[in-house]
Amino acid sequence: MTEMSGADMVVQALVDLGVDTVFGYPGGAVLPIYDALFKHPTIKHILVRHEQAATHAAEGYARSTGKPGVVLVTSGPGATNAVTGITDALMDSIPMVVLTGQVSTALIGTDAFQECDTVGITRHCTKHNYLVMDPERLGPILHEAFYIATHGRPGPVVIDIPKNVQVATGNYVIPEKIAHKSYRPQVEPDADAIAAAVAMIAAAERPIFYTGGGVINAGPDASAALRQLVALTGAPVTSTLMGLGAFPADDPKWLGMLGMHGTYEANMAMNRADLIIAVGARFDDRVTGRLDAFSPDSKKIHIDIDRSSINKIVPVDLAVVGDAGRALDAIIAGWQDAGHKPRDLGEWWRRVDGWRATRCLDFPEKKENGAEVMPQRAVKALFDATRGMDPIITTEVGQHQMWAAQHFHFDSPNRWLTSGGLGTMGYGFPAAVGAQIAHPNRLVICIAGEASLQMNIQEMGTVAQYRLPVKIFILNNQWMGMVRQWQELTYESRYSNSYSDSLPDFVKLADAYGWTGLRIDTLGELADGIQTMINTPGPVIVDCRVAQLANCFPMIPSGAAHTEMLLQPSDVTGTMDDEAKALV
Amino acid sequence: MKIYTEAGERHVLAVTVDNEAGILAKITGLFSARGYNIESLTVADISADHALSRITIVTSGPPAVIDQIIAQLDRLVPVHSVTDLADGGAHVEREIALVKVAGSGDKRIEALRMADVFRAKVVDTTLSSFIFEITGTSDKVDRFIALMRECGLVEVGRTGVVAIARGSEAV
Question: Fewer C-beta neighbours within 10 Å, C or N terminus of chain B?
Fold first, then answer.
């Protein structure tokens, strides 16, 4: 125990917890902590241009490394600006610790300058939060906060620290062992449930693995276990948006993503399966489509570390509560102990191959050099050009995100960073900043839409300051494309406020920030443009002009079943009934 | 298009939580954010060192929703345990109401007579009013208050339900 100021304790705790990077923005109520940081050169502080970007950068850092992201912001607007990223981390189970300054304890509740009720505001968008009223509690709380953020289902934890608590001195206490008095997530799966799962998988004729972000969160070993179990059982694999990368996309057992913009084969296989093995996925509405038609003839095994995810939306036959990796390992061990051999799934695979034959991701395009670039082609070209370079890809939210999910392929986890649950436009660029900080020598590309990018475009300054070689590849169709697509499908093409008017000249903008900017106008310029982007050192923004009215297919429209996919533009009727309109 | 809501069965949940600032807001916020019902909620510190509180929540919903409420409560960091008292078989429920009745003549006599039938105690009286204290199930309290409406009821304060499982075991 050493006597020191609260601010020094905060920084000492970060050092003790192995934190190397903090994303933040200073302000009155965190000045003592900023002063303490000044004296601790081991912690790198990344100065963002807006607190929301600090949270997304921390998410990008966390998602690409598996370590918790750390954010430091001031009271009032600093904290409220961070709320979107905190909520995003909660929805996508990203480990994050957010330190917020607060007005001095005597001023709390007086509507003081830059005061807000941070613990009140963040109570329901954090996994847990704290208001620290005594400097001697800082050590234990910081250590506990990192434990909570990273154990069980990961999530964001906020620690609100009044300014006088930062200034006051006390003893810095490190708890010996973190065993929270009430928070004890179940990590080890129940042995009986594992045995039952093994028996169900061995008996299935039409099994399918449906995997999610939980496999990524469980670490690279969980992805390896998934590959092994799939090889042992011979069953096909599909994944949610958040789970991409856990299973290699070039494996013949990979069916692609499922759900609203998933592949025809993935959705049909889910619908016709007799056994779904859900691993770290939560039956989100974007995945299930119309619930009463969701996989009607299957038994369902649900492996999840969060018991509240089980039976929340889809009732399952077997619940396995625990870490995805441990559960997969246990199933593999059980499978091998029982001496199971893969069943002959030939008939099942023949049906899957039949669905694959629809080639649902194909899209119409003109091939001549002067033709407009189809957005799908741009993503495919980007994928082809970066193959073997092991890039980290982030996305914003919208059509470009779905095209990236469909046409960019991954063979390892932690390479795909996207906002799934909250669907936050403005996530991708700062997430790329966070990923690039964590991986200074990797190729990090943000696939963006021109509308989403503008939500956090101020971070071009951050990138310039830290000389980060982030690449932004804009699929610029001059529309909020997904909004426009829904208006076309649902509101007879009444395009209310979805046109991206008054866009900046992104090339000139790049110039203004000291970046390299380039534009791709035609198909003939696509390959060269991408190559130039890759070969140019430092940050590059590529304004890739794409076909303006292309829609993202396949698509399960609102309120429809997996079997009712729209595969091409001619399937669109242009209107929907109120029941469908009411669904998001 | 119409919006339908699903009815369900009444359940009494006993939730043990850390006795810390904001925990009640966290619990009630969970109910409002996820659209669950709260019919009654009571909370008080229950341990000698004031470290734990017990929250008794009366809620209703179909079995799947009740199961989900329990799972959602259970994953909150400061929650130690959640018990559905209906699950463990028999339990005892009590609620206290203070009921103020004003009036004179026959109504006053009738109020006192009915209080006697319900075993309500008189805890305060003036020449023109009584305050009754009644303890029992919510149902009994409801019936007493309904009768008092006919006898000059002016004010009611209720504690909400507390409940505990029968037998020698703790939750």
Answer: N
B34 and A CB contact within 8 Å:
no
Contact between residue A259 and residue A561 where contact means Cβ atoms under 8 Å apart:
no
As a whole number of Å, the end-to-end CA separation of chain A is: 54
Q: Helices in A273-366 by DSSP H: which ranges? A: 285-288, 324-337, 346-356
Half-sphere exposure (CA, 13 Å, Cβ side) for A141? 22
Residue B42 C-alpha from the chain's centroid: 6
**How close A313 gets to chain B, by Cα (Å)?**
9
Q: Tell me which residue of A212, A420, A220 sits closest to A303, measured CA to CA.
A: A212
Give the Cα separation of A303 and A310 in Å (integer): 8
pLDDT on residue B5:
66
Residues of A in contact with B78 (CB under 8 A): 128, 182
Beginning with the edge strand found earlier in the chain, give each strand of the sheet holding A207-211 in spatial order: A254-257, A237-239, A207-211, A275-279, A299-304, A318-321
Q: Which helix (H) or strand (E) holds A170?
A: strand A169-172
Report the chain A residue with the minimal C-alpha distance to residue B63.
Answer: A311
DSSP E strand boundaries for A404-523: 416-417, 444-449, 471-476, 516-520
Cα separation, A438 vs A416, in Å, equals 14
Considering A96, A480, A482, A576, which one is annotated as catalytic?
A: A482
| A579 contacts on B by Cβ (under 8 Å) | 1
Q: How many Å lie between the alpha carbon of A386 and the closest alpha carbon of chain B? A: 42
Q: What is the spatial distance between Cα A96 and Cα A138, in angstroms, rounded to a whole number?
A: 17
- Alpha-carbon distances, residue B80 vs A182, B30, B125 (angstroms): 5, 16, 43
Tokens of A279: 């691993």
CB atoms within 10 A of CB B127: 6
Cα-based angle B99, B103, B104 (whole degrees, multiple of 5): 135
Closest to A573 (Cα-Cα) out of A557, A550, A553, A554: A557
| Closest of A405, A360, A398 to residue A269, by C-alpha | A360
Q: Which amino acid is at A273?
A: A
Nearest one of A561, A90, A10 to A291, comparing CA atoms = A561
Residue A110: what are its φ and ψ, rounded to 5°? -105, 10
Interface of B with A in 102-141 (CB under 8 A): none
- Condensed to tens digits (0 to 9), the pLDDT of residues B156-166 reads 999 999 999 99
Q: Is the peptide bond before A135 cis (omega within 30 degrees of 0)?
A: no
For residue A460, give the 3-state DSSP assignment. helix
Active site residue A91: no
Q: Hey, are the CB atoms on A124 and B64 less than 8 Å from each other?
A: no
Q: What is the pLDDT of residue A401?
A: 98
Kindly report the number of other CB atoms within 10 A of residue A420's CB atom: 23
pLDDT of residue A110: 97
Tallying the residues shown for chain B, one arrives at 171
- What's the rounded Cα separation, in Å, for the pair A329 and A320? 13
Q: How many residues does chain A have?
A: 584
On chain A, the residues whose CB falls within 8 A of the CB of B68 are 308, 311-312
- pLDDT band with cut points at 50, 70 and 90 for residue B4: low
pLDDT tens track for A525-582? 999 999 999 999 999 999 999 999 999 999 998 888 999 999 988 887 777 778 777 8
pLDDT in tens, B109-141: 999 999 999 999 999 999 999 999 999 999 999
DSSP A248-274: -TTSTTEEEE-STTS-HHHHHHHHH-S
d(CA B100, CA B97): 10
- Percentage of chain B lying above the pLDDT 70 cut: 96
Contact residues on chain B for A119, CB-CB shorter than 8 A: 22
